[in-house]
Amino acid sequence: MGNDALKVNDFVQQGTFADIHITTRGSNWLWAVTAVMTVAALAFFGLSFTRPRPQRLFHYLVATACLIAAISYFTMASNLGWTAIPVQFQRNNSKVSGVFRQIWYVRYIMWFVTTPLMLLALLLAAALPWHTILFTILLAEIAIICGLSGALVRTSYKWGFFAFACAALFAVLYHLIVPGRGHARPLGADVNRTYTSAAGLAALTALLYPIAWGLSEGGNVIAPDSEHIFYGILDLLNKPVLGALLLMGLKKVDNRHLGLHFRDYDDLPTHRGYGEKSIHHHNGVGDSAAVPVVPVTTTTAV
Fold first, then answer.
1. Can you give the pLDDT at residue 281?
2. Which residues of 47-76 are buried (b: 16+ CB within 10 A; e: fewer)?
3. CA dist list (Å): 15 to 18, 90, 152, 286
4. pTM of the model
5. In this structure, are residues 28 and 205 in contact, taking their beta carbons and an 8 Å threshold?
6. CB 215 within 8 A of CB 285
7. Residue 153 confidence (pLDDT) above 90
8. φ, ψ for residue 237 (rounded to 5)?
């Protein structure tokens, strides 16, 4: 059975025809990304059963991010989750000639939900304090909202939103590179190496997203099919590949070494003050280190 998504769901939204739109080839690519995201989500969730219940936080975070991405790419592959917006720059190239371009708002909904999950996993791996983690996530959300706002604007004012998004993005990169590496280094060679490689990949893809936006929603330079290929590769690197790096690098690391403690449902709850006690253990992080226990609200693992 062939791909008839573009026949079932056409290119008319609220009476407006999007003449700059994806083709069956682009839809096929989106179906492929949907499949990869789905397999990755199932694999990460399955791997969680290889760890004790209190040690499954990172598996749950990356599996959920990939599942949400799979739903989003299913929506786009079905030619849904978009609206038609007049382009600021009308091009002569036949692939991008026209007035109304498909703008995929469902992609931004995906990023709004999955980016905090992946950032949370990444920054918890470096044992950053919660206020830094929350501030970094908030900055990322600002960048995403500004990106969507700019994509929905037809005039040159879209580039004002683009500038705000880039400013917030660079602030996120600062927290990934400077405080992040500073907190990961004392946790041992394995944690430091894992965080450095994962944060490096996240930073590289973060720098490429604005380029993709400028060439597609912003400047109408590349066709929607190419837009989806560009964004799809970045999302694959930023979710399944980044998630695999984290899980592989932290597979021998006890979450308590990162300041995370979750009790199992058959464990008795303990009450301990902040910084009351330090632990000295190896935990598979390359070298022994004295790491202060940073208890969080006691949670029953599932």
1. 38
2. bbeebebbbbbbbbbbbbbbbbbbbbbbbb
3. 10, 21, 17, 62
4. 0.86
5. no
6. no
7. yes
8. -70, -35
> Which amino acid belongs to residue 159?
W
* Residue spans of beta strands (DSSP E) within the chain: 12-13, 16-17, 83-86, 100-103, 278-281, 289-292
Query: What band does 261 get if pLDDT is binned at 50, 70 and 90?
Result: confident
Rounded Cα gap, residues 223 and 227, in angstroms: 6
State residue 269's pLDDT score: 66
- The chain-wide mean pLDDT, for the chain, equals 88
The answer to whether 225 and 163 have CB atoms below 8 angstroms apart is: no
- Count CA atoms within 13 Å of residue 205 on its CB side: 19
Q: Which residue has the tokens 């040690």?
A: 55
- Look up residue 101 and give its two tokens: 């371009």
DSSP for residue 273: -
The closest alpha carbon to 143, from 103, 176, 115, belongs to 115
Q: Which two tokens stand for residue 219?
A: 């400047």
CA dihedral 107, 195, 281, 51 (to 10 degrees): 40
